[in-house]
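User: Hi! Is it possible to get a structure for several chains at once, not just one? Here's what I have:
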Amino acid sequence: MKSTQSFEEKSITSRAEDYNQWYLDIIEVADLAEHAPVKGCMIIKPYGYALWEKTQRILDDAFKKTGVQNAYFPLFIPERLLKREEAHVEGFAPEVAMVTHAGGKKLEEPLVVRPTSETIMYDVFSKWIRSHRDLPLLINQWANVVRWEMRTKLFLRTTEFLWQEGHTVHATYEEADERARMMLDIYRDFAENYMAIPVIPGQKSESEKFAGAHATYTCEAMMQDGKALQFATSHNLGQNFAKVFDVTFLDEQSTKQYGWQTSWGLSTRTIGGLIMTHSDDKGLVLPPKIASIQVVIIPIVPKEWDAELVGEETRALAENLRNIGLSVHVDKRDIRPGEKFYEWEKKGVPVRIEIGPKDIAANTVVVARRDTSEKKVFPLTNIAEEISVLLDTIQVDMLMRAKAYREEKTVSVDTWDAFVEKIEAGNFVLAHWSGDAKVEAEIKELTGATIRCVPFEQPEEEGVCIKSGKASHKRVVFAKSY
Amino acid sequence: MKSTQSFEEKSITSRAEDYNQWYLDIIEVADLAEHAPVKGCMIIKPYGYALWEKTQRILDDAFKKTGVQNAYFPLFIPERLLKREEAHVEGFAPEVAMVTHAGGKKLEEPLVVRPTSETIMYDVFSKWIRSHRDLPLLINQWANVVRWEMRTKLFLRTTEFLWQEGHTVHATYEEADERARMMLDIYRDFAENYMAIPVIPGQKSESEKFAGAHATYTCEAMMQDGKALQFATSHNLGQNFAKVFDVTFLDEQSTKQYGWQTSWGLSTRTIGGLIMTHSDDKGLVLPPKIASIQVVIIPIVPKEWDAELVGEETRALAENLRNIGLSVHVDKRDIRPGEKFYEWEKKGVPVRIEIGPKDIAANTVVVARRDTSEKKVFPLTNIAEEISVLLDTIQVDMLMRAKAYREEKTVSVDTWDAFVEKIEAGNFVLAHWSGDAKVEAEIKELTGATIRCVPFEQPEEEGVCIKSGKASHKRVVFAKSY
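Assistant: Yes, the chains can be modeled jointly so their relative placement is included. Here is the combined structure:
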């Protein structure tokens, strides 16, 4: 399939030429988002927002199956609440936006625009929870949050972003930890089986964990430039916040106990990850399960007298596909088919079907895959089932391809020189590290690489820290990151 | 059915005693929402938020059927943008919240937390639209907005609230006006056929219209105290904003034209209207189509040896009802049935089913309607279909009851004394008014009543203004309002 570059359209910078510009070009040509008149903020356009709507629907269903309920807490947090948990305020204070005036007057106490909602929620949870019978408390909210970032980038890091934040309270450490891991596994499943993004689930180092958490679990994905993207995180908060916000319950012996808490979130940044995992130099590539349009049908009408026949067969085909639950768009615009091919290619629609008088005469259609650019003739008999199977194949292939790419760019190293070289070349590097935060900071300072996670599934293996030579029992994942 | 008042529960103030306190009590006992630590803000609790989720799902589907697409625009609006449309800024400036500091620094230009998004959207629309082929542009967003209100009340008027705001651009006045009316009709349909709230669709007077609009269409509902609640509004914006924000397009003759715009919104305040339309002195009453739990099943286990039998039959019954798409909750808690009846009554679940060993022996169940408190024995044969029919009946009955109540409290008057008396007594008053804004203001000053709307379906009728005696061709709806 040849792209027709003759239209007056923005061309896409290639990945090899300028990876960053390529990413921004994809967002522009696929019509996903754009910069807002407010610095660092983003306008999510309908075709981009549809990806977020699909994400919301899939995750919301998965959360609810585990007993989580949605609620809504205020956008504004009194400054004194944010300040109550020491590590938390240190983590967030530098990047908050403050409302100081409202209704024409100066406020007595400035309000923080929520960067995350632990503090306001837990202040309220302390009133909601009385006894062990009120536990577990399983709350989620879909909301906008604001973090004043210096360097922003569409989807990946914006001053305001959309996310969900789950917050739970449990009677025991074990139950809270199990919940934190359960929610991480929902994110892993969503990443792999919907967004077709392979992720490495693991635990953050002490330096990289969430401000105020006992432990942070994460799913780390590799982008095409070899950099890591934190896909989503889930925190075992221990009793840190419970002690500060007095989240207590009476246990079965009527003894007052502090609750064990978790919080977990996934944001619109995952859409940045989706774009960077699959797209190519021709445009966006979407996995079928997250695409708002799974199949685009392009009627080919070479002569006017073909219009009625092609129109009828196109309608029948679209209905046929919709009847088995596929999301289908028929592009009936009065422009050349090549122009349409080009547009839907840029927009990453997984499957394109071309149907014209010759196809109809042969009882076939031409089917093109976006991910491989492969074009094949399909018989019209059983077309719905065939397309459905093809979409499943594309979904699996995209995950496998991304996984193979990541594995190719993941290396184990045992010398410092090799470490520096492999990090510089844009790899995920599995290396020994003894757990010393100072050494971690030194490595970051020297190479720009951070510990993305201590993978859950990394086998025990005796070795020595890549930098300090101290004894180590496990390899961890180092990489540069977004 | 007798309420057991012996539990340590908050009792509900009766409507007759204190209508305002009754409303707040219902919200508390039904666990819908509560005040946040930030003045004027609200925490929407899971049982209350579920009503908003249902609202979102129903309206979102209805919008999308008319071609509307969702998008997301930033929370923050640069002050200069808000100030561009004169009437608009006058309407909103007194109630905006301002971000003046962020990231530890004073901002060069203060940011307004969106009270509504006309200004930021239209600034962007002016770049999106080039030609008549880009029209109509049909955008909606689900978002939080902030208006600094002096006197707040849960759901009805809160500093931050949740809503959807639709914004469209068209090539002609007629098409824009048709769209504004179409969206109002979606709100009317939602009010009447889902929330069972009868509404009067009509047009706002010049004084009551939206700041910056050409015409505002509204759906007005009557609460049980006879006051009006503006359920939702839809604005024909004419070219007012288009001229200020340069929303232009090239028509088929390649001549530059200003776009014709609409905006329309519905907020969490409708949940306040839902509560106030149907609830009674025993608690919340929910119409089946908006209830998150439509049927609650209470297993009655008088002796321990009944547990297995009752458990099995309860499971079968619940599955039976869920199979036809009903939302069912089985209350298996180890507390007395009376306590459960009382709780679900307060929470407004439309249908309660009691099932015990005697019922099972007789192949029946006891079914109680929340709206009428009626209790009946139903045969277990065909129970799912019977319950489904009962829910439909309840849905229709609730609308009819609310409609009858409104009609009883709606009067036509032709003298000023009668007008004052009927307004004072909490009625919707149909009276002649000549269209003079000064007289409208005088009437408001003297009685507290405003013109809720000029109903679309009010017949032409010659008369004289109730206050000024000037000639009038139509009656309008006067009432006190929320």
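Residues 295-390 of chain A form a domain with the Rossmann fold fold (CATH 3.40.50.800). The first helix of chain A runs from residue 19 to 29.

User: Great, thank you!
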